[in-house]
Amino acid sequence: MTTRLCLTLFLITTSFTVSADIKPSNNIEYPSDWQNWASIAVSHRTDNNTLRLIIGNNIAVKAARSGKTNPWPEGAIIGKVVWKETQLENWQAAVVPKQLVHTEFMFKDSKKYSKTHGWGWARWVGLEKKAFNKGTEVCSSCHSAVKNRNWVFTDPAQFPEIP
Amino acid sequence: MTTRLCLTLFLITTSFTVSADIKPSNNIEYPSDWQNWASIAVSHRTDNNTLRLIIGNNIAVKAARSGKTNPWPEGAIIGKVVWKETQLENWQAAVVPKQLVHTEFMFKDSKKYSKTHGWGWARWVGLEKKAFNKGTEVCSSCHSAVKNRNWVFTDPAQFPEIP
């Protein structure tokens, strides 16, 4: 009985610890439930051998599907899931995801993030979700190449309309 | 007034027509709302220059994220969205989606589809969702290479657990 109680307490504690352990990145909280968000696009970066899935919250997906992305609407969150690439064992010409590298997010809020081009920039590294905290300059310096596209590289992919 | 009424009737008729125009593929109805499904993986087929997004209904995504995919559970629907590839204008080493080629789905129902390896196989071509009806043999002949993986090529990608 004591063993069972201890096990239960241990499991409860562990469960809470996992959640509480995710630190903010650049002062931004980890977005909840993004793993179930719909998709905006995919990409294969041949310069660093990674595959990417680009997802969004409802506001971002609606904007992407209707082509209203310059600027992206207030409240939009765009996420990028990045994996190292590998060959699919049963179809060697297919390049597919292996280890998760990190997940990155851009949070559109023109007022809150007025000093960083209207976007909040955040990254969590690996399956352990280690918060990246080297500042937003690391993100925006690269994204400055697309400042005329509201700082976003992604072209939303074509999706058939929902009937 | 008459013009307005005619326009309204025209719009209503058109709206219904679009939905009714999607024909079954291999006797399978077009799955509803798949555009909002969560993701399982992505891939880049270098043999035919396409990018792919692999998505699933709730049953399939739950199985994928927990590694319970051999066999995939009853009721699982796996979707593949296929685009021709292009280079991203602002980052040329990034291969990204261009025209939509087709969307394909596998429907797991061991009883209903007992004659086709426990899966229903369907495809709708292009943004116009033209039903593919050349039979399931076209699908399963290729997928026979992975019959020991319950007929599915995709390895679910690593996603960080939802806290």
Describe the 3D structure:
The structure is a homodimer of 163-residue chains. The first copy, chain A, is of the alpha+beta class and 163 residues long. Chain A contains 3 helices and 6 strands, in the order H-E-E-H-E-E-E-E-H. In chain A, strands 1-2-3-4-5-6 form a 6-stranded antiparallel beta sheet. The longest helix of chain A is centred in the first third of the chain and has 19 residues. The relative contact order of chain A is 0.16. About 6% of the residues of chain A have low confidence. At the A-B interface, strand 1, strand 2, strand 3 and strand 4 of A face strand 1, strand 2, strand 3 and strand 4 of B.
User: In angstroms, what is the radius of gyration of chain A?
Assistant: 18 Å
> Quaternary state, please?
homodimer
Give the beta-strand count of chain A. 6
The overall pLDDT average of chain A reads 91
Topology pattern of chain A, helix = H, strand = E: HEEHEEEEH
- The N- to C-terminal Cα distance of chain A equals 56 Å
How are the elements arranged and paired?
2 copies of one chain form a homodimer.
Chain A (H helix, E strand, L loop, with lengths): L1 H19 L17 E8 L4 E7 L1 H8 L11 E12 L2 E18 L10 E7 L4 E2 L5 H7 L20
Antiparallel strand pairs in A: 1-2, 2-3, 3-4, 4-5, 5-6
